[in-house]
Specification:
Blueprint lengths: L2 H15 L3 E4 L3 E7 L2 E7 L5 E5 L2 E10 L5 E2 H4 L6 H12 L4 E8 L4 E6 H10 L4 E2 L8 E3 L7 H4 L2
Parallel strand pairs: 5-7
Antiparallel strand pairs: 1-4, 2-3, 4-5, 6-9, 7-8, 8-10
Length: about 160
């Protein structure tokens, strides 16, 4: 099992164990016909997970950073292959009441950070920051041996 698969399984386990609803959004597919044959073509999904906590919707994408790498905003958020996730999370957060963002596992540092997409947007618009580290949002970063507690994302 790859480390990111283990992280995604842990997310579901911890959040369900807390008594909250969570589902992994499966990779989408659409049917296309090529020469009379029906085939499935992969479709990108807006984000990885949808949850419900105390009546509020929570949408997030899970990211795993290894080898001391940083969460590069340009390649992981604003690139043509990833911008759809950022836009969908931003739309959800701006819709009124939903919490949305990125859950980042800093594998080597043994830390987890939840980055609210509205705070990320403010960082992109108002600063020259090019990447995120665990120190960027210290109040949302905690040791990875602790349970993933989605209710903390909703209350702030």
């Amino acid at each position: 099992m790859k480390y990111w698969e283990a992280f995604e399984r842990r997310i579901v386990h911890d959040i369900r164990l807390s008594g909250h609803f969570i589902t992994r959004i499966p990779t989408g597919a659409r049917v296309i016909k090529i020469g009379g044959a029906v085939q499935f073509k992969g479709q990108k999904t807006a984000f990885d997970f949808a949850a419900a906590v105390n009546g509020r919707a929570v949408f997030f994408d899970a990211k795993c950073m290894t080898s001391g790498e940083r969460f590069n905003i340009r390649s992981l958020v604003l690139s043509p292959k990833k911008i759809h996730q950022y836009q969908a999370l931003l739309d959800a957060a701006q819709s009124g009441g939903a919490v949305a963002g990125y859950l980042i596992w800093w594998f080597n540092e043994r830390l987890i950070t939840f980055v609210d997409v509205l705070k990320l947007r403010d960082l992109i618009v108002n600063t020259e920051v090019k990447s995120i580290t665990p120190e960027t949002f210290p109040s949302k970063t905690y040791p990875d041996h602790l349970k993933i507690d989605v209710s903390k994302w909703v209350t702030s």
